[in-house]
Amino acid sequence: MKKFYLTTPIYYVNAAPHIGHAYTTVLADVLAAYYRQLYGKDNVYFLTGTDEHGAKVAESAAKQKLTAQAFTDQVSQQFKDAWQNLEIGYDDFIRTTDKRHQKIVQEILIKLKDKGVLYEADYEGLYCIGCEKFISESELIDGKCPDHNRIPEIVKEKNWFFNLQKFLPEIAKQIKADKLKIVPSTRKNEVLGLIKQGIPDFSISRSVKSVPWGIDLPWDKNQKAYVWVDALPNYITALDYPQGEKFKKFWPADVQFLGLEIIKFHALYWPAILLALGLPLPKMLAVHGFFTIDGKKMSKTLGNVIHPDELVKEYGAEATKYLLLSQFSFGHESDIKVSEFTVKYNADLVNGLGNLVNRVTNMVEQYLEGKLALTLKPAKWTVAANKDISNLQFREALLKIWEPIHKLNEQIDKTKPWELAKDPAQHSKLKKLLTEFSEELYSIAKSLQPFLPSISEKIIKILTAKKISKPKEPLFKRK
Ligand code: MSP
Predict the structure, then answer these.
(1) 182 CB-near residues (< 8 Å, 6+ apart)
(2) How many whole angstroms separate alpha carbon 285 and alpha carbon 180?
(3) Which of 94, 135, 364, 419 lies at a 20 to 30 A Cα distance from 202?
(4) Of 369, 358, 351, residue with least CA distance to 470
(5) Residue range 93-151, pLDDT digits in tens
């Protein structure tokens, strides 16, 4: 039986959902929809969620004069609401404050200790709360963390460490052989480079004094689990590791999506934890670039943070997904041009797809009384578009689907079916032409299903009805 398990990172609750989070979530949503068609609904599992522990969250809660729990409840709900508005079809939403998660993380920690991969040692280092990680002197600019523009704290404490060295050779082997495939390949090379350079063991705990909000180390109440060691196992706790049916069915993950800034955690720490537990590694890590907004880093201070709700309100959920995936190719660092959204919406969706559906169905309705016998056989180009989707080349797939959209609109202009309709002698030619157009439109709608599920369903319903008629309302309203 074929199955497909895919995940997004679980998002920190110290900020409201923005289009960076939405982008990753939409990637997973489209891929999940694609595999549901292929393997059936029950054989696909799409997990997302929120990462709710750590010093940074405690700090944000305190700023708002809320308890950490009340604060995380609030922001986690904002993520759920945003995904609902964006019509994200996830199967599970895990929160690291869920009892089910906390319990299994503690069991995992005990297993790791029993297996002898943890050891206690003194640690002194510079800790950036913004990154939730220790950073080295060489990474600082003017004594500050360049990503968060804040002075890191000097932290000295006794911590538990994970013996990463023990697992690096095996991890490197699996990455090289593409057993743990990292795409794009530039990211694979980056990870192999990191391993070659030498990468220290990581601590799996923090003193309660520095991080009061987290999961207790089961054997030492003065220590909390390090936020990454708490967060990464979400990918298996959500499946009820170790005994759950879901775990047995879906692990290992088929694709884990992430942004490039968290590659070290996913490509080294996570595989090491899995190997220590005796579990298979995910089949693929799909790493995408960060994007900027009109050339600038997205930040609250600059006031250029875009929330997915704003886009959904303006364009609707499905068009928003289209606009996010069609602007740039997967894997690249790119710049989102806000003004492009409306231009692209009108050009591709209103004038392109919407107009085409209207024209074809209107002509079939008017000239043929809505009657056409279609074979509903997918066109040849759909194979290549589907292949792009399975290779995570979403933009390229969309470009392949838009080629026939443009071509058909041009062909209609050129062949002028309305002229043929005036001459009864041309009736069979007209019918042949409109049949061709409708067949092609059907292929377009089928290929668009993972991207624009309800729009394509509308088109398919029209084309497969006893009598074809044009849509009651335009599929997209001009902006
Ligand atoms: N909580 C950790 C992940 C733990 S996973 C076990 C975390 N959370 S986060 O809220 O910072 O989300 C990071 C992810 O959001 C990125 O990896 C990426 O998928 C997405 N993005 C956040 N900002 C983004 C951009 N500006 N551009 C593209 N994606 C972005 O890290």
Answers:
(1) 175, 188, 191, 263, 267, 284, 285, 287
(2) 7
(3) 94
(4) 358
(5) 999 999 999 999 999 999 999 999 999 998 888 888 888 777 888 889 999 998 888 89
CB-ligand 1 contact for 352 (6 Å cutoff): no
Average pLDDT of the chain, as a whole number: 95
Give the mutation target among 262, 285, 292, 293 for probing the ligand 1 site: most ligand atoms within 8 A of CB: 262
| 247 Cβ inside 6 Å of ligand 1 | no
- 248-268: pLDDT as tens digits: 999 999 999 999 999 999 999
Ligand 1: centre distance to CA 235 (Å): 15
d(CA 37, CA 262): 31
pLDDT digits (tens, 9 = 90+) for 405-436: 999 999 999 999 999 999 999 999 999 999 99
